[in-house]
């Protein structure tokens, strides 16, 4: 399988030009805070000081996890397919926020343990009816993981716009994400696990023990894509593929919560330059997310106490991206508005 090549966005001359354009706007220097950094990043990604947000889309990848047999989620596995139905009917949180912000939404069956049949609005990329239980054996074969990555790349290759938000649905996937985080960063499992959909303290401890035992069992697995196949999910692997392809195409990647960030952790181990293309929508309340973001050197835009997933953070951050684009394109300069510049 060929992995997309991602080019770092570095361009000293353009960075200088963008900095000047931002500083010339009618505002005290630096006063638009993180929006200024966003504008600079978008300019470097788009190789222009004329920024655009074209046809923003969010892909919600759904998949099931064999590890739910260990009792690691507060909800039953059937919620995965039931929520996919909810997405298709337009009634989930992500539908509401995507609609609100004029963002296209595509739902992808990456590997849900349910037969939907041909359905309008559902993209069928099903690799299998859920992964295997990684407490006992690798979640996926290398071939299955490869198929998931390829599907993700193909999906991202077809998108018409220049911004792609990521979302996921999969009961048990905070366990897979925590295992990926532990294996890829070496952070103790106790600092990677959280309540997910709402586990009790006892439940979180059980989740920790399941991951610790599995990590010991698969101690020899260390290459990022092997770690992905052993502990990940089909929706996570498909996100990795889509992220790599979207960054190769110089799209802006909008990163949601704990699970989406775990996919990025894998992608960044494979192609570190992908981070240049990422906007981190928010810091989730899932307890490992902050440390995961720190590992990536990420500064998230929002701190709303979200712990939902589905791409809800991505959808909610989209207006901030639009604000960064709009201030660059529409704000007057000191010169054009004849406003006096700083005197000291
Ligand atoms: C009704 C419902 C809607 C959701 N939407 C996203 N998730 C979120 O919760 C799941 C991960 O948590 P855990 O690892 O604890 O199972 C994922 O599906 C995630 O997207 C939901 C969970 C539920 C119950
Ligand atoms: O941060 C997330 O994306 C998250 C947290 C808890 C449950 N589901 C998703």
UniProtKB/TrEMBL annotation:
Keywords: Cobalamin biosynthesis, Glycosyltransferase, Transferase. The lineage of its organism: Bacteria, Pseudomonadati, Pseudomonadota, Betaproteobacteria, Burkholderiales. Coiled coil: none annotated. Belongs to the CobT family. InterPro entries: Nict_dMeBzImd_PRibTrfase, Nict_dMeBzImd_PRibTrfase_bact, Nict_dMeBzImd_PRibTrfase_N, Nict_dMeBzImd_PRibTrfase_sf. HAMAP family: CobT. The active site is at 310 (proton acceptor). This is Nicotinate-nucleotide--dimethylbenzimidazole phosphoribosyltransferase. Its EC number is 2.4.2.21. It comes from the Bacteria. Catalyzes the synthesis of alpha-ribazole-5'-phosphate from nicotinate mononucleotide (NAMN) and 5,6-dimethylbenzimidazole (DMB). It catalyses: 5,6-dimethylbenzimidazole + nicotinate beta-D-ribonucleotide = alpha-ribazole 5'-phosphate + nicotinate + H(+). It holds the Pfam family DBI_PRT. Gene3D superfamilies: 1.10.1610.10, 3.40.50.10210. GO terms for biological process: cobalamin biosynthetic process. Pathway: Nucleoside biosynthesis; alpha-ribazole biosynthesis; alpha-ribazole from 5,6-dimethylbenzimidazole: step 1/2. The keyword rRNA-binding does not apply. One of its GO terms (molecular function) is nicotinate-nucleotide-dimethylbenzimidazole phosphoribosyltransferase activity.
């Amino acid at each position: 399988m060929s992995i997309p090549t991602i080019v770092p966005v570095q361009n000293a001359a353009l960075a200088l030009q963008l900095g000047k354009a931002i500083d010339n706007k009618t505002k005290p220097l630096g006063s638009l805070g993180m929006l200024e950094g966003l504008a600079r990043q978008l300019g470097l990604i788009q190789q222009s000081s004329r920024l655009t947000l074209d046809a923003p889309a969010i892909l919600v990848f759904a998949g099931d996890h064999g590890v739910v047999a260990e009792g690691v989620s507060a909800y039953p596995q059937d919620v995965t397919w039931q929520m996919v139905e909810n997405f298709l009917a337009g009634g989930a949180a992500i539908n509401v926020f995507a609609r609100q912000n004029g963002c296209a939404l595509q739902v992808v069956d990456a590997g849900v343990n349910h037969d939907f049949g041909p359905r309008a609005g559902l993209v069928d990329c099903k690799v299998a009816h859920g992964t295997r239980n990684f407490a006992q054996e690798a979640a996926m074969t290398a071939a299955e993981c490869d198929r998931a990555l390829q599907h993700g790349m193909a999906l991202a290759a077809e998108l018409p716009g220049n911004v792609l938000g990521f979302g996921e649905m999969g009961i048990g996937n905070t366990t897979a994400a925590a295992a990926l985080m532990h294996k890829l960063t070496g952070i103790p499992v106790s600092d990677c696990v959280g309540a997910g959909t709402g586990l009790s303290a006892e439940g979180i401890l059980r989740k920790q023990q399941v991951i610790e035992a599995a990590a010991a069992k698969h101690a020899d697995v260390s290459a990022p894509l092997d770690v992905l196949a052993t502990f990940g999910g089909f929706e996570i692997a498909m996100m990795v593929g889509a992220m790599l392809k979207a960054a190769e195409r110089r799209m802006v990647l909008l990163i949601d919560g704990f699970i989406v960030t775990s996919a990025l952790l894998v992608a960044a181990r494979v192609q570190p330059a992908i981070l240049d293309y990422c906007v981190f929508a928010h810091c989730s309340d899932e307890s490992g997310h902050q440390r995961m973001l720190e590992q990536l050197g990420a500064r998230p835009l929002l701190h709303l106490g979200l712990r939902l997933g589905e791409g809800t953070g991505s959808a909610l951050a989209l207006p901030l991206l639009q604000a960064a684009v709009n201030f660059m394109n529409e704000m007057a300069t000191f010169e054009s508005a004849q406003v006096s510049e700083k005197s000291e």
